[in-house]
Write a structure and sequence with these properties.
It is a single chain. This protein is of the alpha/beta class. Among the domains are: about 55 residues, Oligo-1,6-glucosidase, domain 2; about 80 residues, Immunoglobulin-like, CATH 2.60.40. Helices cover about 25% and strands about 15% of the residues. It has 17 helices and 21 strands. The strands form five sheets. An eight-stranded parallel sheet has the order 11-10-9-5-2-1-13-12. It has a six-stranded antiparallel sheet with strand order 14-15-16-21-18-19. Strands 6-8-7 form a three-stranded antiparallel sheet, with no helix packed on it. The longest helix has 16 residues. The N terminus is likely disordered. The chain binds alpha-D-glucopyranose (GLC).
């Protein structure tokens, strides 16, 4: 594991910030974000001062050549930039400008499937005896209109995971859209070609990869039916999956200090941790069990403890509660109108739990989902609301594009743009943006937040509490989050000193300074960081 002298590897230190390029910033007025727009806003992410988010790295969702059936997750050329987003030269400049600000660049790697417009698939489809035919998963059906097995697309609206190609008389597999045929990873040529894609981007200076649907890189070669109660044959096929991940790791290890984070969409923590425990597969795995929790302190505690119990020395958590595929936190946990406070508490959890915080663009602004009228819906799987463009400036000053675009935005911008835009929040001490900046820089100033041991502690009903410490005498930082929709009084956790110093509260009304733990009243949704000992 490559480390900076005396420190943690970069991918453990600070936040990794996800950019969904279509919706981040548009530099040319076509209503769609682009690479130059990202460069224009890098100072928001890290300008080296606490007036920025101080992010460690950005992860860019796909910007490759694509017909955009799945908005870039259908790749037609793995080694080129789609003209909508710019050029390879723009990408090179983005890497230079990011590195100049000490921001690492992580790119999305979409190895399970290509676009049906990729030259490989065009060749595969053209003739049964084409050498590329076997690069995809083709099978005869079970009779007229009957696909080879019962596998379903991950997109409910698509239905079965097979499409019949009348010209060649066979079916091809697509775990997502029909426009996203699955590559055949059982063919070593496919694996080698995808390894070369990693090398291409490493040579261009990228620091890591987020592996799209990593668990799908190995499937049952016999393509048996999915049956309830049996291990799913359409993903996580053992031990093949681990062998393939180990070989991907070996490729990035040809270069210094590179990182692999997997989208490991398995809702069984044990299986997720198997991807990071050995230390020679993924560095990090996105933990979707965490994302699927109800807003309940006991559930979050059990999940955090569950990870720590299963994790071997090499395993490092990657916390996230939002990305481009799931409703935003401020809306998801808003059942009783507490969404905005909870979005702030979530930020505190991400930065103060042992592990790497993954922050999705707009999360630092506490954005809710945008309202998408039926005639503006573009995604097959209902994910438009969380993908709405970032409001950089007040519409009353910057026009309806809210500083995202001078044109017509590809998705409507949130109605909260006037209040929640980045410019306004940047000069408001009470804003969510200011809170996120403080959390990020506190993690730098208080190294125990990045490096310390962690144990959850009892602090009372509805309160999630955990201690980060470097030594055994209880000194360290205590974090407490109130999950209740009402105020709650803290019961000082057993063995902890009764006094502490408030480092930060998500409630702007609370003053910093000395406090007594026992009886401390936390507001609904409030989270606090308290220095102890
Ligand atoms: C991942 C992506 C999602 C995409 C899918 C297919 O889950 O996060 O956006 O639709 O893979 O590539």
């Amino acid at each position: 594991m490559a480390e900076r002298a005396g420190g943690q590897p970069w991918w453990q230190r600070g936040a990794i910030y996800q950019i969904y390029p279509r919706s981040f910033a548009d530099s040319d007025g076509d209503g769609i974000g682009d690479l130059r727009g990202i460069v224009d806003h890098l100072d928001h992410l890290n300008d080296g001062t606490p007036a920025s988010l101080g992010v460690e790295a950005i992860w860019l969702s796909p910007f490759y050549r694509s017909p955009m059936a799945d908005f870039g997750y259908d790749v037609a050329d793995y080694c080129d930039v789609d003209p909508i987003f710019g050029t390879l030269a723009d990408f090179d400049r983005l890497v230079v400008e990011a590195h100049r600000r000490d921001i690492k660049v992580v790119v999305d790697f979409v190895p399970n499937h290509s676009s049906d417009q990729h030259a490989w698939f065009a060749a595969a489809r053209a003739a049964r005896d084409d050498p590329r035919r076997d690069w995809y998963v083709w099978r005869d059906g079970g009779g007229p209109g009957r696909p080879p097995n019962n596998w379903r697309s991950e997109f409910a609206a698509v239905g079965r995971a097979w499409t019949f190609d009348a010209a060649s008389g066979q079916w091809y597999l697509h775990s997502f859209l029909p426009e996203q045929p699955d590559l055949n990873w059982d063919n070593p040529e496919v694996e080698a070609a995808m390894h070369d894609v990693l090398r291409f981007w490493c040579e261009r200076g990228v620091d890591g990869f987020r592996i799209d649907v990593a668990q799908k890189l190995a499937k049952d070669p016999q393509l048996r039916d999915v049956r309830p109660g049996e291990p799913p044959p359409n993903e996580d096929w053992q031990p093949t999956i681990h062998e393939r991940l180990r070989r991907l790791r070996a490729v990035v290890d040809e270069y210094p200090d590179r990182m692999l984070v997997g989208e490991v969409y398995l809702l069984d923590l044990q299986r997720v941790i198997a991807y990071i425990n050995s230390g020679d597969e993924l560095h990090l795995a996105h933990n979707f069990t965490f994302l699927h929790l109800p807003w309940d302190a006991a559930a979050f505690r059990a999940s955090i403890d569950g990870f720590e119990a299963l994790a071997a020395q090499a395993a490092w958590p990657a916390w996230f509660l939002a990305n481009h595929d799931h409703p935003r936190v401020a809306s998801r946990f808003d059942a009783d109108g507490q969404g905005p406070a909870r979005a702030r508490a979530v930020l505190l959890m991400l930065y103060a739990l042992r592990g790497t915080p993954f922050v999705y663009q707009g999360e630092e602004l506490g954005l809710p989902d945008a309202e998408i009228p039926p005639d503006r819906v573009v995604d097959v799987d209902g994910r438009d609301p969380e993908r709405a463009p970032i409001p950089w400036r007040a519409p009353s000053q910057a026009g309806p594009g809210a500083g995202f675009t001078t044109g017509e935005p590809w998705l409507p911008i949130t109605r909260a743009a006037e209040e929640l835009n980045a410019e306004r929040q940047g000069s408001d001490d009470a804003s969510t943006l200011t809170l996120t900046r403080r959390l990020a820089w506190l993690r730098r100033d208080q190294p125990v937040l990045a490096t310390g041991e962690q144990r959850t502690v009892d602090a009372g009903d509805d309160l999630l509490a955990w201690l980060r410490s470097d030594d055994d005498d209880g000194a360290g930082v205590l974090a407490i989050v109130n999950f209740a929709a009402q105020p709650r009084a803290v019961a000082a956790p057993p063995g902890l000193a009764g006094h502490g110093t408030l480092l930060l509260s998500t409630d702007p009304a609370r003053d910093d300074g000395a406090l007594t733990l026992d009886g401390l009243r936390l507001a609904a949704g409030e989270g606090v960081l308290i220095r102890i000992g």
